[in-house]
Amino acid sequence: MSGIQEEKPIWYKRLKLEIEDVRKFKGPYVNPYIRLGAYVLITFLTGCIYWGWNGIQELLYKGGSFADLCNGQSDISFITIGNEQYIDCGLRKSEINNLYTIAFTSHFVFSLVGGVLLDIVGPKIVFLGSQVINLTTWLLIFSIPKNKSVLIAGFFIIGLTAESSYVPLLTVSRYFPKNNSFIMTLLGSVRSLSFFVPMILSEIFKTNFFKPESLFKIGIIYAVFGNGLAMLLGGYLLQWKFEVKETMPQKSVELDVLDEAEISSFTSDELIKMLNPENFKKKCLLSRMKDLIVSGFKHPQLLEFVLFLISSTLFLTGYGFVNKAQREIFVTSDGKSAVDLFKYFNILTFLPAPLMGMMIDKIGPAYVIFILQFSGFLFYFLITFDFYATKVLACFCYIIAGSISVSSIYCYLNKRFSHKRFGTLMGIVFVSIGAISLTNIPLYDLAVINLKHKAPFNFRPIEIGLAVYMAVAFSIMIYLATNAKRKQPQHIQIESGSFCV
């Protein structure tokens, strides 16, 4: 009957996202779905394009980066890009692919800076500033591709601004209060799609219309349709400060209150001294940091955080090596190569991401991260075999391992630790990942320079070592998943029990 409203099916109710009233936050007041759509487009255009390293490699090879290093080398080979062949050798491989590690390392080491700036100056300025720096840097890289200093500094800066140009967009998850992890992983999956951008630019540059010396034209195209469009959208939609609007007219006072888990780590004498009113007057930033460090070392979740730190660092260090070594590790001794297949699989990592986000909301982050890391272990296990079929199977494992490789860190810290310490904990994890990822430079050089006489098996020792990385990582996550089931974090117990009457 027309007068009776038809009940929505169960699947529709489960898929429908609950949205917050936009006027709860500062303007501009835009429908959350429209805002999300705009942020998705921005993320696709500028999310983390250097991770689409296959396309960047082709741009640099045709542009002539480090080609002079092959003069007089005994291991000269040729790489086909489009219809042309370009010279290659161990030294050139090393210099080009180590640029990826430079960007990867600065990406994680300096991610804390982006978080601090976000708190101090707000999403709009951080985003626009990062986009301007990004735009300028890509133009320099594409305009002077044969200058080593420009390339090293350029990719360092690209990594430096990778998170600060992306993290402001995560504020959109606040408009979907019951689906935060899903929205974060949705943007994370679109970030994987941004790996497709260098491939598009590479396909354009491969055509005979563009000569090797005209790489700067590709830079101009990306500056206009990539960073330029992102700046227009983000400049309008992002807030100067992302804050919940005041509901009471009187001014609020922010107190730096320790949570119960931190309080329990102090003795009664220490607490009496801390609560002395005179101490609040004298307390400086240095002493507050000292108190924070002391409470951190006494915190009941210290072991959990350290184990998560080790697990995440090993996993992402091994994950980061794949991109820089893809042109070597996917080749078999009979000349077959899965490299061209892998570059599409690298983009397809976006597919499982939304499902992974929903699983995190349902069963918790530890189990999902275990799935990622076990897939990473299977990748390295399969890639060590000298068969084309196992190389292809490894690509399928990579789709799972790379689906929410970075977003999973956000989700774990968001679910398991106090929100007050989220930025600090995230910064510590990312600095660790960035620092240890530097070891990928000597590992890669060991294979392409010191062990080049063993090609195509020169990467096997490194592959076995990285498989061990993954095994240790997922073993730790098994423990953390089991522990999470038995023991709920203290701050969650407080939040769930504080308002019971």
UniProtKB/TrEMBL annotation:
GO terms for cellular component: membrane. InterPro entries: MFS, MFS_trans_sf, SLC43A_AATransporter. Keywords: Amino-acid transport, Membrane, Transmembrane, Transmembrane helix, Transport. One of its GO terms (molecular function) is transmembrane transporter activity. It comes from the Eukaryota. It is a multi-pass membrane protein. The chain crosses the membrane at residues 33-53, 99-118, 125-144, 150-170, 182-200, 220-238, 302-321, 367-385, 391-413, 425-444, 464-482. GO terms for biological process: amino acid transport. It is found in: Membrane. Pfam families: MFS_1. Belongs to the SLC43A transporter (TC 2.A.1.44) family. This is Major Facilitator Superfamily.
